Amino acid sequence: MNITAAIKRITQLTKGDFAIWMVVILLSLFSMAVIYSATGTLAYQKKGGHTEFYLFKQLLFVFVGFLIIYFCHLVDYRYYSRLAQILWLASIPLLLYTLIFGSDVNDAKRWITLPIINTSFQTSDLAKIALIMFLARQLSKKQEEIKEFKKAFVPILISVIVICLLIFPANLSTSAVLFMTSVIIMFIGRINLKYIFLLILCGIILLTASIFIVKNLPNDMVRKMGRVATWKSRLENKFADNSSDDKTASYQNDQAKIAIATGGIFGKGPGRSTQRNFLPNPYADFVYATIIEEYGLIGAFIVIALYLFLLYRTIKIGMKSPRAFGALLAIGLSFSLVIQAFINMAVAVNIFPVTGLPLPLVSMGGTSLWFTCFAFGCILSVSRNIDENEEELTKADEQNEKIRIPSK
After folding, report:
1. How far apart are CA 11 and CA 71, in angstroms?
2. Residue 105 pairs with which residues in a beta bridge?
3. CA-to-CA distance for 203 and 370, rounded, in angstroms?
């Protein structure tokens, strides 16, 4: 089988927006190249110098992720509306269980371990997708009464607050991203603008008050409050005067700045990063700094362009979708991924404080990568449905045209 025939066969098997498939493939290739380079030190520390270990591990994760995308995109997206109810309800006890019995890492209980396969995952990853799907369902069901406060806004707001508050204590950044995404979905879903502006204002006031309180709490009290100590440390590191010898200056941000500064326009080249030996998590939280060091500003802009292109293509899919649920589902999941990506990149270039959010499809990971792939599968499912409807309409038009042509 030649290359052309192979491509044609793959195209027949994979439905949906071809451009989004290409975004997934290109980001995955970036992931492979950067992780192979960035995990060198980790491999010598934990795997006796077998540098291929983490590459093959990531390759396995990506392979399973592509299977998830493939099978999810074959499912009619309308079934995800029914699944949304189950996932949203299941997320609440899972998040509560995680807060009480979850694995404690850096004073944050985010992970639970699955008993049979012995794999840990963040329940917030599941809750994030569940809430977006549930919001899309609720908004699509309430379009006839969407401007009403009690019948539409209050029930939708409650579903958002419940999930965001349960995520908040252990994962402030994910909770904030999810809240922003929810507001965007509500805006697209035609919720009354005055309610949305009021919600944004309340969110800003709450966030500002939280930052003020955390920054001014006595250190002795903060140490007893677990995760709050981490939040205060990150805020102080972010707003410290880095021109002085302030001991609170962030080591992570300093190393990321060095990686970015030495990358230049074209970068040092694949596998030639030096800051990977000093930068904490150069394959996860700060993977974007590693990309800039090795591939320069050109590589950095390519990654940004891929996420923006994903958002553009998804908005086009939403505009073509014949059903409100499909449009809200695709656009909501896309905004969630892109906002997370830009926050991760903003942290790497020292615009935002350290958050711990991975770069979707690029950072090393297992279950977080699979949940991202599930989101892509849902988006492609909506796209596939649109393509099939257009094909049916085209065939119907052709058939009608044949009927109208008089026979000789």
Report:
1. 15
2. 108
3. 30
Q: How far apart are CA 368 and CA 336, in angstroms?
A: 13
The pair of structure tokens assigned to 123 is 């329940």
For residue 399, the tally of other CB atoms under 10 A from its CB is 10
Burial of residue 249 (CB within 10 Å: 0-12, 13-18, 19+) is middle
Q: Mind spelling out the 3-state secondary structure of 295-306?
A: HHHHHHHHHHHH
Structural tokens at position 148 = 């009403």
Question: Cα(first)–Cα(last) distance of the chain, in Å?
Answer: 43
Within 8 A by CB and 6+ apart from 330, the residues are 314, 317, 318, 321, 378, 379, 382, 383
What is each CA distance from 310 to 21, 216, 319, in whole angstroms?
10, 41, 14
Residue 395's H or E segment, with its range, is helix 367-404
- The two tokens of residue 255 are 């190393």
Q: Is the dihedral of CA 173, 178, 181, 186 positive or negative?
A: negative
What is the C-alpha separation between 37 and 59, in angstroms, rounded? 14
| Predicted structure pTM score | 0.88
User: Positive or negative, the Cα torsion across 23, 29, 32, 33?
Assistant: negative
Q: Specify whether the CB–CB gap between 125 and 367 falls below 8 A.
A: yes
Q: How remote is the C-alpha of 382 from its chain's centroid?
A: 18
The whole-number pLDDT of residue 334 equals 96
**Tell me: the pLDDT tens digits for 221-240?**
655 555 665 666 666 665 65
Per-residue pLDDT of 124-153, as tens digits, reads 999 999 999 999 999 999 988 988 998 899
* Separation of alpha carbons 90 and 308, rounded Å: 32
Which H or E run contains 388? helix 367-404
Q: Where are the domains of the chain?
A: 32-74+250-384, 81-216
Q: Are 53 and 364 in contact (CB under 8 A)?
A: no
Instruction: Give the C-alpha separation, 286 to 28, whole Å.
Output: 16
